[in-house]
Fold this protein.
Amino acid sequence: MPTVQRNAVFILLFWLPAAVFSQSAVAIADRRELFIDRHLIDRLDNVQMVLHEPHDEGAVLKFDKPWEGPFCGYTTIIKDNDLYRMYYRGLPASKGDGSDLETTCIAESRDGIRWTKPDLGLYEISGTKKNNVVLAHAVPANHNFSPFLDTRKQVPAAERYKALAGTEKSGLLAFYSADGLHWRQAQKEPVLTQGLFDSQNVAFWSETEGCYVCYFRTWTGDGYSGFRTVSRSTSTDFLHWTPARAMSFGDTPMEHIYINQTHAYFNAPHIYIAIAARFMPNRQVLTDEEAKRIQVNPKYFKDCSDAVLMTSRGDTVYDRTFMEAFIAPGLGWENWVSRSNYPALNVVPTGAGEMSVYVNRNYAQPTSCIHRYSMRLDGFASLYAPYGGGEMISKPLLFAGDRLEINYRTSAAGEILLEIQDENGNALPGFGLQDCQPIIGNELARMVSWKNNPTLASLQNKPVRLRVRLKDAHLFAIKFDR
């Protein structure tokens, strides 16, 4: 069994009559659906939901400029056509939230792999204008400046980039930019005040919900007590926001969520991905001697952190199908300090069939940097059955399209077969397992075919179930296509 399965959630259910599972159909149209939650799943028999750990590709950016330093953080990655941009807080010394030492810096890339720091000449910092600072002397905005590219249709050119930033004292302030480099404050007054905001507070335009959504730091108790958690607000104009509503996590235990990094997944925007920093206060790993050896600031080695995968399909619900670490701390004591292993906002494509997430490493140390982690496209999680085989039965689905595409991987001995059933679990004539062409290989987009049935057009907009039989195989995503 592959190493990645150590993070698996194993579910085995007994078969019950189809009538027991009678339910309303899930309308998926022609959207890509990932197996990151149980949204489409009715029954699993000897099938695991597997969390796949991203691969560490090493350091891609060092915070080695005088205005950057060991306390850089709250990173955002934006892909704007062929240009990648990395925004982050520059902070050479810890001086309290919202100090004038804080700046907002930028790095750029053409492939998301090799990064450079442009000399912008916008602000004089440390005696020079030859720097990569896009915002300075904007107290307290530079503490946690979090921008996004506004994908709303007909957005004014001058507001193509937007950002939120601020502290409990200031509230969240709104910013606009036409080019992502020159920023102006939208108004003097804050746009959000119902939060403590002592983290990175993120926003984006949701095409699915038809509004801006913001996920920001709150606490479960009064003031700074209880657990660090997340609340949500929405807006139609980015300036007027609904009252804060706390996010829920199902029946999972509460944990400290330091930064939530919620965003619309680029390959399936109706699914929100949150690669969040899970903070473990007072969980000390290093001894004083080990801390001195890696030159970590004495205030920043009494805790540790990792990254977890949460998802949402809108409203105030996070799904935590996987409680295990998505990105665990790496080898070396430098990875086991406070505020390290914090993911950047946004997963972005970085090659044919590849996507990447970026992580702040070695916080409060001279070696502070950003690492890139690569993943298979749609490869956050999968359905997996071992050599002995297993099956998944979906909920009733309403789809639009005339063919079915899957993202999958098998072993040389493995295979996948798919059957289309009516909503009561009866195989439709010509679409049974015995009619399906066995699927063997490793592909991002494979069209499923059945004998004598070249099209699914006659089945669209009718409730159907999918029966998927897997043998030593992973199924990452499905998409009904036109």
Summary: The CA atoms of residues 201 and 216 lie 4 Å apart. The mean pLDDT is 94.
